Amino acid sequence: MLTGDLDNVVNHLLSLSGRLARVGNALNNLDDSPFPGDLQSLLEKQRILTHKHEDSKELKENLDHLECIVFDIPANYLSEESLADYEHFVKMKSSLIIEQRELEDKIHLCEEQLKCLFHSLQPREANERSIPAEVGH
Prior knowledge:
Blueprint: H1 2-28, H2 36-75, H3 80-130, H4 133-136
Helix pairs in contact: 1-2, 1-3
């Protein structure tokens, strides 16, 4: 149960961090929007997301504390080597979730870049096809 809760909280923290970053980028790129409500809307989103992020960090701290308490239970039943493996598993789980999210974000960014590159090349390819072969060479 503890590792499942840890997964959920870490994923939630990563999601909120990403959303906060996007709102921050949107605020930085807002340059005199013709819609005055845009700034207020983004600031409100930022305030709400920041509050949720702080709550999630507190929840993560509570889970870390609970992990220390729960760790004593398997310590009574597992060998020293198995206990070290368990502790390593719990610590690595969060790191691997973070690494997985970073890789997924990089893949998504690459896919977006490929899509933009593909779209930027399409008009050029269409123009090259419309030029007769004698003129193109």
